[in-house]
Structure formats: structure tokens, C-alpha cells
Amino acid sequence: MSAVWATFSRELRAYFFSPLAYVILFFFLLVNGAVFAVIISYLSDPQLGGGRPFDVMFNSFPFWLLLLFWVPVVTMRLLAEERNSGSIEVLMTAPVTEGQVVAGKYLAALVFYAFLWAPTLVYAVLVDRWSELDWGTLAAAYLGVLLIGGLFLAIGVFASALARHQVVAAVIAVALELAVFFTGLVSALVQRPAAREVLDHLSVIDHMNEFSRGVVDTRRLVFYVTATLLLLFAASRALEDRKWR
Amino acid sequence: MIEAHDLSRTYGGFTAVDGVSFSVEEGEIVGILGPNGAGKTTTIRMITGFLPPTGGRVTVAGKDLVEEPRQARREIGYLPENVALYPEMRVREYLAYRGRLQGMPRAEVGAAVAEAVDSALLSEVAGQIIGTLSKGYRQRVALAAAILHHPRVLVLDEPTVGLDPGQIIAIRELIRDLGGRRTLLLSTHILPEVELLCDRVLIIDRGRIVAQGTPAELARASRGRRRLRVAVKGGDGGAAAVLAALPGVVAVEEVADAGEARRFHLEVEDTGDGKMGDGAPTDPREAVFRAAVDAGWALVELAEEATSLEDVFVRLTTRDTAAEPGADDGAGDSGAPGEPS
User: Fold this and answer.
1) Using the beta-carbon criterion (under 8 Å), do B84 and A94 form an inter-chain contact?
2) Whole-prediction pTM
């Protein structure tokens, strides 16, 4: 456990000491803020009718754009940079396992990701002040953000374990995330009902839709947690693979 | 303390290390010497558990690196060839991180860091960001990190590579200080380093151990010829012939452009008992001196060139190449392509 903690705390510090983190944070908040402002002004128009702003935000195109293209930037450095600089040699000759390293790095990325979203809670406070807000629904929505983001982060960690260069890691991660993203979309094109049902269960868009409406389905929880763990396991195996080449 | 048995490693089709066996006793300082690409780094990576061997086994303090990696790794302090630190961290923070990575209890980390900072002479820069340090200091930080958890075995891969002469001397002194109490395995391609630091030397070439022993033993074993440097004034063209006629002298080579004096390199047969061949009772230097006196030359220089480890090294690592038809690029970098870094 101490090895996981050592990796985790170093990695988290590294996030906040690198300029990249602030670039990520800046653009993340800029896009989110702009989107939210547009949503609010749209929903405030009496002609267009009301709606719940968070519901709209989490089902919007910019939300997915951020998740698909911003999460890989968060994770791309994690393992690829250790390989590229050679510091992996120090890491993997210490009495730690590949799994502990992957776990520590993943947790650091998850905390940083949560940190990215944390300022958006200010929007919630504002909405609550000038309008009405169901905090339970909001909690479900943020759970969804964390679970789906958590899966995408795991994809990113896996990609970073495969690649030697950060950019390659990011490209692999985006490709894999797009594959997951589009799996749900193709269900409309599939004829066989059984296959369609399977694909519907894999649709991250539908899942986010449910979460943002306040629906927390246990099947979704199980799906995201197992998929994340599976990917992290794959990442630790990918890291071990370097020994044999 | 370190036992390597028939250790082999192949990368794809390329064999980097081929059946290497050796052992290092507790408290011994052993040098691994070899040209670039000879398999030094690969051997060391197997000893430290970074790479599993494709054949054979290695144990450190009785623990197998593959079967009990965590227990075995705890015994080892490792300075990799490529020192990669985290440039955004401060020295003290980095060392504390390495301590925690070694599984040291939180309470002990602080004291261990202070001790390592002290013994690696880092106190001036302990609060600095690693990215701002010179290469010599970074090397010391890496060395401090390697000794932090009080390992019984210290493994250093090319510890002085890329440093300036002043830094090299400082690091060597540090290694000697640290080595006193520990078992130390050191790889290098710099010969004086081995002669200065090591009790015993393994010479590796093309993935095999081609010789081992103390530096003196190796030098003696390779002996067979002694080399004298002679310079005389006076005497004419006949000097070379006179020297060549001395008993035991195998070859005379005149050094061109020696100025006023005439300089020669003499190859003299060595019988191993300090005497010359042909049963001559005298030291070859004595014979040269007498010849000079007889001929009326002024002897301005007479010295024996010590057979250095360098000669042993060059002989051992180039002979193989000569014996192998088609290998014309020297024993040098032929091993490099397969080695990941």
C-alpha cells in the first residue's frame, strides 16, 4: 500500500508542478464556463421554455468533446514519460509491482480529474441561488461524470503503458475512447434485436443521460467499475511486457 | 552476496548476454569492464531485476530476483547508467519519495534522507529543484537515492559517464567512501576507474566473461612482453642495431622526430621472474644501461612501461574479433542495436 501511496503522491504533485496541468485546467474551465453561460442564457429565454441547465450541459456536444479529447491529455504523460526518460528503471527496480505503480498513477489522475470538475460546482451554487436545483439529481450527474471519466482515464493509462511517447499515448487513448463512444451510437444501425440490446447497454451517451436525470442504475456502476479495473489490469500487464522485449 | 549462474539474455534474435556466471562476496568491490555494447548494462539490469534473464538465474543475498523480486530488490541500491530523475522535484523531496518507494516506514524516511544527503555531500543543494542542478550533482542525487535504504549491495552502472574530470574525481571518492562497508558491483569502460576502485575485475566482451581476477593478476597473466622506453643522445645509426642485439630483445621501434635524442621502444621477452630470456641473469634495463656505457651514449631516458589493465583489455576484447572472419568493426558497438534504454 505504501508503494501505491508513494506513486500517487508523487504523481499528484507532478500534476500541480507542471505547466501542462494549468493549461489543461484553464481551457477546461474556459470551455465549460462558456458552454454553461450559453445554456443559461438559452434557458432563460421565456420563448424557448425552461429546462435544467446541468441536464443540458451533461448531454451537450461540448461535454463529450472535453471528455474525449481532454482526458487523454491528463493521462498521456503518466507511464509513457517514465519510459521515455528512463526513470522507469528506478521505478521497476524498487520493491514495487507493476500493479501498484499503475494504481498509484491512476488514482492521481482521477484526483486531478475530479479537481478539474470541482470548480463547476460553483455553477450549481449559482443556479441554486437564482433558480431551483435538485442536489440529489446533481450528485447522480457528477457520479456519472466521475464513472465515465474514470473509465476514460483508465483507457488513457492503458494507452500510456503501451506507448513510449506521450503524443502516441494520447492518440491511442483518443482512438480507444472514440471506439467506446461510437459503440453506443451504432446501435441504431444494427438490425438484430439481441445485438442492439447489448450495444444499448454499452452506450456511454445513454448512461450519461440517465445519470444527469438522477437515475443511478446498479448495472451501470458494475459496468464502469469492472471495465475500469480490467483496463488497469491490462495496463499493468502492458508495463510488464517491456521486460520481454 | 551476488550469485549469477549461467545468465543469458536475448532480445529477439540478438544475444546480449550469453551464459555469464560469477559471484561477488560480501564486502567485495567488483568491476565489470567491457567495451560499449558488450552486455554490461544488460547483465546489470538482470542483477537488479529490471530485466528477467532468458536463461540462468541470479540471486542477491540469497534471494532470487525472479522468484522473490521484492525481497531481493530491497537488498539492492541501484544507480542506472541513464540517471533519470524527476526534474520538477526538490532534492530532499525526491529522496523522500525514493525512500517511500522502498517501503521505508514514514518515521524513518526523514532520518535516512538526512543521512544520504550528508554522505553524498548534497547539503548545499538539498533544497534545490533537481532540474536546476548540474550533471555532477544529479549523479550524486541518484547515488544518494541508491544508498538511502541501506542496501547491502550497491550496483552502479557507469557512474562517471558524462561528467567532467573534477566531477569524476568527486564521484569516485564518494564511491570509495560508500564502498567501504558494502558489496559493490560497478560497471565501466574506463580502465583507470577499475584499477582505482576494484578488488576484482570481470572483463566482458560480446556477452561473455573473457577474463576475471584482481587487476594485478590480470596484468600479470597478460604479461609475456615487457616494454622499455629508451632515449639516448650521441651514437649514430647503429643504436637500433645495438639495442636489437641485446639478449631477450624481440623488437626495436624507433620513434621519429624525437628532437636531439633518439628514442626507441623495446619489446623484451619476459620470463616472469623479472629476468630476461636466453638465461641472461640481468634486468633488461641493466643490459640497456651497460650497452649505452659501452657505446659511449648518454642515456637520457630509460623506463619500463607498466603492463596496464588496458593492455589486457585491448588484447582480450580485440583478439576475439580477429579470430572471427567477417567481423571487421572491432569489438565496439556491435551490441547496441538490441538494447533498449
Assistant:
1) no
2) 0.81
